[in-house]
Amino acid sequence: MTKTKSTLKDDQNSKPEQGITRISVSGYKSLAEECSIEIAPLTILSGANSSGKSSIMQPLLLMKQTLESTYDAGSLKLNGANVRLTSTDQIFTKSINKPASLINRFTISLELDRDIIIKNTFKKENKIKGIQIFSSVYRYKDFTMSLNLDMNHENILNSFSSNLKELFNILKDKEDIKGFENRLSNALKVKYGLDDLSHTSKEDDEKISESIKELNMVVEDTYRFWVESHRCFLHIESEFLYNNASSYLPSEIDTLEEIAIKRLFELFGSDGLCHITELRIRQLIHVSGLRGNPERTYPVSSIGRNFTGTFEDYVASIIHSWKVTKDKRLKLLSEALQILGLTWKVDTKQIDDTQVEVRVGRLKNKSNSQSTDMVSIADVGFGLSQTLPVVVALLVAEPEQLVYLEQPEIHLHPRAQANLAQLLVDAANRGVRVVVETHSELLIRRVQSLIAEDKIAAEKVKLHWFSQDDNGFTKVTTAELDETGAFGDWPEDFSEISLQEESRYLDAAESKLMAV
Could you tell me the pTM of the whole model? Predict the structure, then answer.
């Protein structure tokens, strides 16, 4: 018996790439109930400390480091470059009121291009197995397929066949599979005289159901289906049984069989929707809040579209590559750093085959400096080495690629924090999906100004505010910004606290002056 696979590779070549447009998480740390955030071109996560900002992104990072692992770490690699956990107890929501059926499990749902949703549930079965992928729910437009490891051939076929007509309807308007619609329509017309699949009567539906039953018989004799797990995904596998049982059936049933099997594997096989999602997860650029100390030299690293682990290890080699290839982004990098008031120039020098040195202009402005007045990045303020990975990530990212920036304002002067907003907006306007976790009121306020100045459309920006209820569980409030950049009440943790502190100081100063 020989295994067969169908792929989406040909179809993918003719489709625009799809980005992650929504993340939903439940059962993870303080995210007891499902919390969901839309991923706009510029997405801002803000709120008090320990309110769940990082937690909503961590399941995605866990999947990234699992997929990138050089060894099989199982369904989830807990301790890696992006997330460092040592026990499953650090993952699951702790609640005395939680139903027994929901203990020791969490769910992450990823939406791609608003048409594809993959919802994975992870569960701790026992201490030996650790966390395992428990179920996967795939949705393509209105068609849904649920998978778990206990499903057998009959379960899979019944689940697929019960929604077969819906699948045909949502696929038939795609340009790259018009032949599929024609073959299906012709097959049904030959057998039942049906001209349009999308406008069928109740009697026609019954005929289609009978055809599907015949299809099931054919497939049952020809293929065997089962569910397999690969790291953090479940998908359908098949075995072709080399049975000639279908040879006596009408040719239109053979056509339906061919269509069904092809579409089944294109969507739910290992090269289907889970493969598309895996590619997007691997392409995620993660600039963590801890970006290391500035070094005299940096190891040479491989440069591509995917950056395994956290991003800071690639920065020196990316800059050096731009220098060697005369890439315009090297000039853009220097200009961006000058806008932030950090330096006017960045340069690299390859020390040997394994090491690259990063050098920067000693002064902040070109007019006051000479091109030879350069020093090692290790000899300037800490803010430059911490901000460099942020700016390089924004420049290297491609449209629809997700860039996750944790506290990009770290070690920056207030003016630089505000100016950083322009760099975020520039990347978002190029089509990059930028997710920023920040505590900077100045950065957010500048984003509002840029919306009001028509530098970025309001619909391209989402502000998600994180808070905790009385039980310590996360609540997410999404602000809808208007064309002026306004979004209603400013979070108490920002402006009101600033006003309170200013008022406290003025009252104290006035009292002291009055006492003199």
Answer: 0.84
